[in-house]
UniProtKB/TrEMBL annotation:
Species annotation: Pseudomonas atacamensis
Taxonomic placement: Bacteria, Pseudomonadati, Pseudomonadota, Gammaproteobacteria, Pseudomonadales
Compartments where located: Cell outer membrane
Annotated protein name in UniProt: Ferrioxamine receptor FoxA
InterPro entries on file: Beta-barrel_TonB, Beta-barrel_TonB_sf, Plug_dom, Plug_dom_sf, Secretin/TonB_short_N, TonB-dep_rcpt-like, TonB_sidphr_rcpt
Keyword match Transport: yes
Listed PROSITE patterns: TONB_DEPENDENT_REC_3
UniProt record similarity statement: Belongs to the TonB-dependent receptor family.
Alphabetical keyword list: Cell outer membrane, Ion transport, Iron, Iron transport, Membrane, Receptor, Signal, TonB box, Transmembrane, Transmembrane beta strand, Transport
Primary location: membrane
Domain Secretin/TonB short N-terminal: 75-126
Pfam family, one: STN
Domain of life: Bacteria
Length: 833
């Protein structure tokens, strides 16, 4: 007999809300977003007179001047770096209309800005025909152009991560960091996590040298999942309670945007620490072809290609095809990484008002490398006079393996109805298959021995998921106040079938390992069918009132999760399936003031929630985690530049955080956590050739009311109120500089260098042992061989952890500490034609 156990909804999941939820889902699954007639609005565009604004943009590089003007004027300006390269602008001071100011800025450049709708402009040569010319750049999109396009250098000016609209970073009342494509290339980022190494508030290697998943701990919060990764505006949809997690190679990305703090008002379930938005490479409307090859230490070797360009003579259809083959022996003995990936993309401009981008991402990882930990006794401290090698592998070469196949297909559709309304619909389907066999260590066999206990876990998982997000954006004026209103509804559904096995193996000597004891004593099998369904509706208003910027948002979510044990267990007293239904209303509000001197102080409040798909030892689902944040900060952008300096103070309170010990198959609620701190960030283009990034993070995080049950007797507790969670360093700092020479003797040479400091953290929740701080140095050197006649050829050498510092990245507990990455060096040759 099958018994169904249902968790009652404490938030009153009523029949009325169920009807509303189903109605929203029906609307979301239509193929286009319908727009009804809204009340008439007072539109500046229809008054017949163009509003003038006062500008004070200093003379300087044309690209910087135009970016600054687009931000101040609230327009989208599509241009290519080639158009503005080497050009200077006389600037503009005084009160002008948009067209008048652009004419001043472009004086003597041989370029003109052509208006498409009063708020979108295209830059083109004066000699071209007055007929409509489509943009020849990858900065596409009526509402999101400057927030998604490629850019030269490290200084992004806009982002869509905080508002789902193209919003200037200076005018965003929350802390946002952006990693550009050029920064990823200069620093030799091999994973998404590595790409964020120089961003404040982010611990990118909580699990050490593993590359299997992109773990990101933000503002002290690390739940052991990668649930805070988004791709092209949509949640990655991996299952954080299993081994099925989507991963994207950074070679396929245009930029990485990082939003700090809770953000459920636009995205639904999410971590309170923040989220990471990946933007994939999009088709270009000018021919682009690039191939590259990489070789490096630890047996690294790989090749990649990136081809793009228009398909038709009118440049209304463009493609991009990016591919990669990469493999490495890794720093751990008997472990390999191997990846094959392909991303075809097609963009179609049906008209100047309608565009569609079709995307696919196919990835096969036959070898997923190492993912394990070893005890603090033997890593942080010597054990019997010895330390465990950073290359030590505690598993069995004939057993361990990890393979992952993932395919995703989706599209991004956008249509502009008129000067007011723009509709967008984003969709993605994900299919994933994971097979895993892992032998892992847990604790020493005796208090004085050199041998580690070993256990076995096997996994066979299949994941299917899809997500759709519909948005209607309206831009209008009420008097002199500008509103950008975003109305949206999204729906996501995920199903994961998991089959797990467990067992035990003979111990292994951690200091003198001998392999071959591969006999497994099987403990048993488990099989689960896990489902998640989320429906959300949201409303946001971005208000521009003179120099004030206000943001207001509300969202209602309905979330259902279920966890069905497909193997009947007679000893289990409460059925084989657990259902959990939740509703949640979240909000956000922010205010910012723009001073003429470039200063912009702000304050914001935001909320998050994340339904727990985890169950406790009795099989009951844990309550959702809820997060709230207050943040105050100051941003500064010197007039006439794209340099940006940000200082932010924050406090986050989270309830019902879930955690588990690695050897357990259930989770525990640990009460409440409070995180507060300071983040400083600087993005500086000091000269045309000199770029500098700097950051500092202070995080004070502690259990504000917490009880953790012990493993042996769940009714007993450990009181750790006031203690800090593990994997949460108190101090972090980084500095990176890159210089490009252009003198006769050194023309074409680039030098880069950086330093990263991570302060101490705690190795256990009881705060009895510290993980020591560490400092790492990175370096890069590149040369443009076109300077000596090899046009389009570039070489680059990257070294991470240059001094080969041996360190422990962090510990999740005293039995699971994670070795940091040793020195790795990679040389890359690329050819663009």
């Amino acid at each position: 007999m099958t018994v169904r156990a249902t968790c009652k909804n404490p938030l009153n999941f009523t029949a009325e809300s169920t009807l509303l939820r189903h109605a929203v889902r029906a609307a979301l699954l239509t193929t286009a977003l319908g727009v009804s007639v809204l009340p008439s609005l007072s539109l500046a565009a229809n008054t017949g007179t163009e509003i003038s604004h006062r500008y004070n943009i200093a003379a300087g590089p044309l690209g910087e001047a135009l970016n600054q003007f687009a931000r101040q004027a609230g327009i989208t300006l599509a241009m290519t770096p080639q158009q503005t390269q080497g050009q200077q602008s006389p600037g503009v001071q005084g009160e002008y209309s948009t067209d008048q100011a652009l004419s001043h800025l472009l004086g003597g450049s041989g370029l003109e800005a052509v208006s498409q709708d009063g708020s979108s402009y295209i830059l083109r040569p004066l000699a071209e025909s007055e007929a409509l010319a489509l943009p020849t750049t990858d900065i596409k999109g009526f509402a999101l152009g400057n927030a998604l396009g490629s850019m030269a250098g490290y200084n992004a000016t806009h982002s869509q991560i905080a508002t789902k609209t193209s919003t200037a970073l200076l005018e965003t009342s929350q802390s946002v960091s952006v990693v550009t494509r050029e920064q990823m290339d200069d620093q030799g980022s091999q994973t998404v996590s590595q790409a964020m190494r120089y961003a404040p508030g982010v611990l990118t290697n909580p699990y050490g040298a593993t590359h299997r998943y992109d773990y990101v701990a933000m503002r002290g919060f690390n739940d052991g999942s990668v649930d805070n990764i988004y791709l092209d505006g949509l949640k990655s949809m991996g299952d954080s309670g299993t081994y099925s997690t989507m991963q994207v190679d950074p070679y396929f990305l245009e930029r990485v945007d990082i939003l700090k703090g809770p953000s459920s008002v636009l995205y639904g379930r999410s971590s309170p620490g923040g989220l990471v938005a990946l933007t994939s490479k999009k088709p270009l409307y000018e021919a682009y072809h690039q191939v590259q090859a990489t070789v490096g230490t630890q047996g690294q070797r790989g090749v990649g290609f990136d081809f793009s360009g228009p398909v038709d003579d009118d440049k209304r259809i463009a493609y991009r095809l990016t591919g990669l083959s990469d493999q490495s022996d890794t720093q751990f003995d008997h472990n390999k990484e191997k990846r094959f990936a392909l991303a075809p993309t097609l963009s179609i401009d049906f008209s100047e008002d309608t565009s569609l981008t079709l995307q696919a991402y196919l990835q096969h990882d036959p070898d997923g490398g190492y993912h394990g930990g070893v005890p603090a006794d033997g890593t942080i401290h010597q054990r019997n006079g010895e330390r465990i090698s950073p290359r030590f592998f505690e598993g069995e070469p004939g057993i361990d393996g990890y393979s992952r196949d993932q395919q995703s297909f989706g599209y991004q559709f956008e249509h502009r109805f008129n000067d007011v309304f723009t509709a967008r619909q984003n969709f993605r389907y994900l299919d994933s298959k994971v097979n895993m066999d892992q032998v892992y260590a847990y604790g020493w066999t005796t208090p004085t021995s050199n041998e580690l206990n070993r256990y076995y876990t096997g996994g066979d998982e299949r994941l299917h998921a899809f997500i759709v997000d519909n948005m209607l954006q309206a831009e209008f004026f009420t008097g002199a106040t500008k509103h950008t209103v975003l109305m949206g509804a999204d729906y996501q559904r995920r199903k994961t079938v998991v089959d797990w096995t467990s067992g035990g193996l003979a111990p292994i000597n951690a200091f003198n390992p001998v392999y071959g004891n591969s006999a497994i004593e099987m403990y048993g099998d488990t099989s689960y069918l896990r489902r998640l369904e989320q429906t959300g509706v949201y409303l946001q208003d971005l208000i521009e009132m003179d120099k004030w910027r206000f943001s207001l948002g509300l969202r209602q979510d309905w979330v259902e999760t279920s966890d069905e044990n497909r193997i009947a267990e007679a000893e289990r007293p409460v059925g084989t399936e657990i259902n959990d239904r939740r509703t949640k209303l979240t909000g956000r509000a922010g205010a910012l003031y723009l001073f003429d001197n470039g200063l912009a102080p702000y304050i914001s409040y935001s909320e998050s929630f994340n339904p727990n798909s985890y169950a406790d030892s009795a099989g009951n689902p844990l309550a959702p985690t809820d997060g709230t944040q207050w943040e105050v900060g100051l941003k500064y952008q010197p007039p006439g530049t794209d340099n940006l300096f940000t200082a932010s103070l924050f406090r986050i309170d989270q309830e019902n955080l879930a955690t588990k010990l690695p050897q357990e198959n259930f989770y525990r609620a640990v009460g409440a956590v409070r995180s507060q701190g300071l983040e400083l960030e600087a993005h500086m283009q000091l000269t045309d050739n000199f770029k500098v990034l700097g950051s500092y993070t202070f995080t004070d995080i502690e259990y504000s009311k917490s009880m953790i049950s012990t493993l042996s007797t769940p009714t007993d507790v450990i009181e750790n109120k006031g203690n800090s969670p593990t994997q949460a360093p108190r101090h972090m700092a980084s500095l990176w500089a890159d210089y490009k020479f252009d003198s006769a003797a050194l023309d074409g040479l680039r030098l880069g260098g950086g330093v990263r400091y991570v302060g101490y953290s705690w190795a256990d929740a009881e705060n009895t042992m510290k993980v020591p701080s560490y400092t790492l140095f990175d370096a890069s050197i590149g040369y443009d061989l076109g300077k000596i006649g090899l046009k389009g050829v570039d070489v680059r050498l990257n070294a991470n952890n240059l001094t080969n510092e041996s360190y422990v990245a962090s510990c999740a507990s005293l039995n699971f500490c994670y070795m940091g990455e040793e020195r790795n060096v990679a040389a890359t040759v690329s050819y663009q034609f």
